[in-house]
Amino acid sequence: MEEAFHVEDQRDQTVCYHIAVTDAISIMYRRKSPKSQKLLLSPQVFIDSKCKNNVFKYLREPYGLQSRETYAFTMINPHIDAPVVLRYNSDYPRYHANDMYEIKDRSSFKSVLEANFGDIRKRNPMIGCMKMGPYKEAKTFDPYTHNMASDSIRKSLKAEPPHAMVIVGIETDDGKSNCYVKNSYGEGWGARGFGQVNINDLISIEMIEIE
Question: pLDDT over 70 for what percent of the chain?
């Protein structure tokens, strides 16, 4: 998916879901219009709104996303007691989503991903959440599965919060069950920010529809 050119580095911030959703929508708008080929939307509205993972409200009217040139992505969280202040620039457009669907039935993940990425008319980026464990230190594009991890690591995963990434493709031929992901750990992770995870290690997947 050549439109997935930008790799973010969230550093020590817990903004992976905000970044993943914004990246997926940026990719879809880049594909939709030649005028949007360099569009890079800002996740900062999710941070400023203190919405945590309940982002859909801020993807609809009267809200929306703006480009990073218009609405700077600082990753700075407002103080917990501070009022919500959204720094939109009314002179520039906002980008919206019509709907979001979360799927948690793991038995359906593979068929849903194949239906999307196997159809040349779709192939829309999706959000995938998983517990990273040792995969957080990946330095290769080789596929990873928690089934290869030790029993102690698999036990430790239970206490780990899920991490969100953008699913940009799949590899399910010849008995394989992998998806290609774009992460938010910077270009030092995986292969310049991209990697492969086993579909069975995903906790949830999410589909987004834009206008």
Answer: 99
Structure-token pair, residue 3: 């439109």
CA 125, CA 96: separation in Å to the nearest integer?
A: 15
- Is residue 206 within 8 A of residue 126, CB to CB? The reply is yes
Dig out the tokens for 146 from the structure. Answer: 């928690």
The mean predicted confidence, pLDDT, of the chain is 92
Contact status, residue 55 vs residue 83, Cβ threshold 8 Å:
no
**206: Cβ–Cβ under 8 A, 6 or more apart, which residues?**
100, 101, 102, 103, 126, 127, 128, 129
- Chain segment 133-153, per-residue pLDDT in tens: 999 999 999 999 988 888 888
Q: What is the largest CA-CA distance in the chain?
A: 55
CA atoms of 79 and 9, how far apart (whole Å):
22
One DSSP character per residue, 62-127 reads T--B-BTTTS----PPPPTTSPP-----TTS--B-EEEEEEE--HHHHHHHHHHHHT-TT----EE
Distance, in Å, from the CA atom of 62 to the CA atom of 199, rounded to the nearest integer, reads 36
Residue whose tokens read 């801020």: 58
In this predicted structure, the answer to whether residue 1 has a pLDDT above a threshold of 60 is: no
Choose which CATH entry (3.40.50.720, 3.40.1280.10, 2.60.120.890, 3.90.70.10) describes domain 16-210: 3.90.70.10
Side-chain half-sphere of 199: how many Cα atoms within 13 Å?
A: 22
